[in-house]
Amino acid sequence: MFKGFSHSVKGASHEKTGLVCQDSSAFKVCDNYAIAVVADGHGSKKHFRSNMGSKFAVEATIQTIDRFYKDLEKFEENFPDNNKLIIKNIQKQIITDWNDMVTKHLEENPVTAEERSKFTDEEFEAIPPESYYGSTLIAGIAAKNFTFGVQIGDGTLVALFDDGKAVMPMEYNEAAPANVTASMCNSNAVGMFSSFYRSGQKLIAMFTSTDGLYTSFGSEFDFLDYHTIITSQLSDLENFKRIIVNNLTKRAHFGTEDDISLSCVFDAELLFEKRELIASEVQENKKRAADRKAERLKKHVEVE
């Protein structure tokens, strides 16, 4: 039985400048699949409706996955052998749905004089309308027999499978040039996606988060350890919600001061079955963290 959680927190930097939270997050759980999705609207000047863009990215993703799952039996039968093609089609449909939502919103809400006043006429005319809504997207989908994810732009997806190890399975997106921000609003957005597919392992829990969470940690080790710890807390979901909201709020105010979104889905029955394994992983992670700290101190003393 899948369960889930999602939450977005406004960063301290946005509170100071009076900006709205540009992140969006959501989850959806059904009998046969679950979705964890977050999106981060771009902060630069030309993306002045990115808070709506991130909202549309989340909605377009859930809408698309629901559509592909409409014929459940056919989808789950075809997916394992044709996952690369199907994921590519999912990515295309997400972009199409997102652009449709953007177009509809712009038609119903034309650019205001206040929005336009921040640009010269020449600057404004050079901005493609879809760029007003620029956003990243990270989504993880858990099914009964497989797990997959899609991503455009920064942010992270962390999964814990039945071996209890926290991993980031998304491949690096080499399609995005180093000097170009991968975004839903790019004309070649479909070619900028990363994705992953995993079968043969049961999923305990999966988390998607915007980059404000990752950058609040000192290392990737610490970031993955964090996900193992919070997975161990999911069995008491109501208490977990209180703990994680407080933690995300602190990180958004005293970490990078950026907006932070976290969404998760998990298999409650498998989590209960693997509770001792997860607890042992938490203890092993603490030991490894202590060893790393000792090694850093040793190197520091040697340098001095």
So, CATH architecture?
Answer: 4-Layer Sandwich
Structural class: alpha+beta
Biggest sheet: strands side by side, in what order?
1-10-9-6-7
Number of domains: 1
Full CATH superfamily name: PPM-type phosphatase domain
Q: What ranges have pLDDT less than 50 throughout 5 or more consecutive residues?
A: 172-179
Determine the fraction of residues in helical runs and give it as a percent range.
40-55%
Shape: globular
CATH domain class name: Alpha Beta
Terminal Cα span? 55 Å
> Helical element count?
11
**Mean pLDDT over the residues:** 91
Summary keywords:
304 residues; Phosphatase 2c, domain 1; 5-stranded antiparallel β-sheet; 11 helices; 22% strand
Give the SSE map.
Elements: E1 2-9, H1 12-17, E2 23-29, E3 33-40, H2 50-68, H3 72-78, H4 83-108, H5 113-116, H6 121-125, E4 137-143, E5 146-152, E6 156-161, E7 166-167, E8 194-199, E9 203-209, H7 211-214, H8 220-232, H9 237-254, E10 260-267, H10 268-273, H11 275-303
Antiparallel strand pairs: 1-10, 2-3, 3-4, 4-5, 5-8, 6-7, 6-9, 9-10
Descriptive report:
It is built from eleven helices and ten strands. Strand 6 and strand 7 form a beta hairpin. Helix 2 packs across helix 4 and helix 8 (220-232) runs antiparallel to helix 11 (275-303). It is 45% helix and 22% strand. The relative contact order is 0.17. The chain has 304 residues and is α+β, with helices and mostly antiparallel strands. It has helices spanning 12-17, 50-68, 72-78, 83-108, 113-116, 121-125, 211-214, 220-232, 237-254, 268-273, 275-303; strands at residues 2-9, 23-29, 33-40, 137-143, 146-152, 156-161, 166-167, 194-199, 203-209, 260-267. It has a single domain, classed as 4-Layer Sandwich (Phosphatase 2c, domain 1), CATH 3.60.40. The longest helix is centred in the last third of the chain and has 29 residues, at 275-303.
